[in-house]
Amino acid sequence: MANSWRRERWDSLRLLTPNWLSRLPGQDYDGPDPDGYMTTGEVVDFIERFALASRAPVRTGTEVTSVRPADGGYHVATSQGDLLCRGLVLASGACNLPVVPELSAGVPAAVTQVTPLDYRGPGELPDGGVLVVGGSATGVQLAAELRRSGRPVTLALGEHVRLPRLYRKRDVLWWMDASGVWDQRYDEIDDLNRARRLPSPQLVGTPERSTLDLNALTELGVELVGRLAMVRDGVALFSGGLRNVCSLADLKMRRLLATFDEWARAGGREDEVGPPEEFPPTVVPAAPRLSLDLRRGEIGSIVWATGYRPDYRWLDVPVLDEKGRLRHEGGVVDAPGLVALGLPMLRRRRSTFINGIEDDARAVIDHLVR
Amino acid sequence: MTTVDNGVNVQALLDAREALKGAPEAAQFTWKATAKWENGVHSTATIKNFFGLGAEQSHKQETVFTADHPEVFAAEDHGITPIEYLLVGLASCLTAGVASVAQNRGIQLRSVESTVEGNHDIRGILGADSDVRNGFNDVKVTFNIDADASKEEIEALVAQSQKRSAVYDALTNPTSVTVEVA
């Protein structure tokens, strides 16, 4: 139960969502720190409590090895024997396997390569500098943690999502929730494919509720470089387009915060929040580094924070597209009795957050029982 | 509502995007220039044909470009230097992007002007210092745009035009180049 939270996440990870917003059907947070962020251990406890309260017949320690169509349903092979079912919910998540770009093949053998699924903490990496590739929540969190451990850190990043942790004295996810942004439905979005592929925002859950944007990383001494474009003869080459991806992220953040302001004004909620705030633009180095020699020993390891993908190797049902993604319409998969939950933007922007499951689950279960 | 017209047929582009989603082979284009040495560092390059949508295609007319070096390089200056053609390419690509994105976003443009500057330490090409690269050290583009839009919307247009620019990408990212003797 809660296997990925137990075994597949790094030690310092906390949820990006504040505790008060981490709720499951009938189980709101009732601890002493509603504005805090759960550690992975606390998430495990939270899920175990829900399992106990809901008394769902969970078979723990059971691995599903294959699912294939059978008469009127599906045949499920597991490490503890076979099952037959009429309806099946795919809730195995979006982050089962790391995505590592093919160019990693050109990295010299002396450089250790890790993914966030293997990484536990700075102590496990070899001595020397670290190149962190990827500017989502994972990339910025690991870059900060590695830099604080005393290592030189270079962060290579392309398009990213900048957010302040707090805006007008409220958690930015309070705004997402309250203003209705998180309720935007999959069938109301212009470019659904893009929305589903959006990297996670540059956020971290810490007791200090601090912002972890690129300016914070620069202040820590992390060196920012453009997207890793190629490794040629053992030299990493970075895009010269760092300034524009930072401008795009600044513009998008300001646009989002302006919609929050507008919502607060229109709904008469100004008294609940602090005064409007402005954030300085992302400071980009005057001449960002365009190459980094990986053969010189300066870089001891590379962390590939380049995303995750779901693992469907056990799913013997033809429901994946040419890129290996699950084809579904708001969670309804194009195979009788098969539905999905917990994928990015499955039915709403909140679909991948713990509190997003309730409405999504109702909708797909309604479909299943129809 | 007034109709925005920047002269870009955005609908055709959006239709092409949809059509090519299911036909990646038709989306493979090859652009082609042929060049000929004249004398000294003076050369001419000609562009007429290209390949795309699964067939040979042609421009309405052939265009000839003259390249040379300036007199301060002890040359005859029959035309601009090759590296200046990169500035031409970048400026026209970003400008086309601004017009297309503005059309798609319903923003009427009145004027779009830009200055593109490439800073170049020529000790690289002269072999005077092996630590200096041959190409630009950096490139700066400054846009002056008059449009029915806020400053922020104009900044977003310029950012989006970089995001979708072929020449911007070709300049900012490494590209594998093969040069052979036939």
UniProtKB/TrEMBL annotation, chain A:
InterPro entries linked: Auxin_biosynth/cation_transpt (IPR050982), FAD/NAD-bd_sf (IPR036188)
Keyword hit for Oxidoreductase: yes
Entry-linked Pfam families: Pyr_redox_3
UniProt GO MF annotations: flavin adenine dinucleotide binding; monooxygenase activity
Keywords, sorted A to Z: Oxidoreductase
UniProt-recorded name of the protein: FAD-dependent oxidoreductase
Species of provenance: Paractinoplanes tereljensis
TrEMBL record, chain B:
SUPFAM superfamilies, per database record: OsmC-like
Domain of life: Bacteria
InterPro entries for the chain: KH_dom-like_a/b (IPR015946), OsmC/Ohr_fam (IPR003718), OsmC/Ohr_hydroprdx_reductase (IPR052924), OsmC/Ohrsf (IPR036102)
Name of this protein: Osmotically inducible protein C
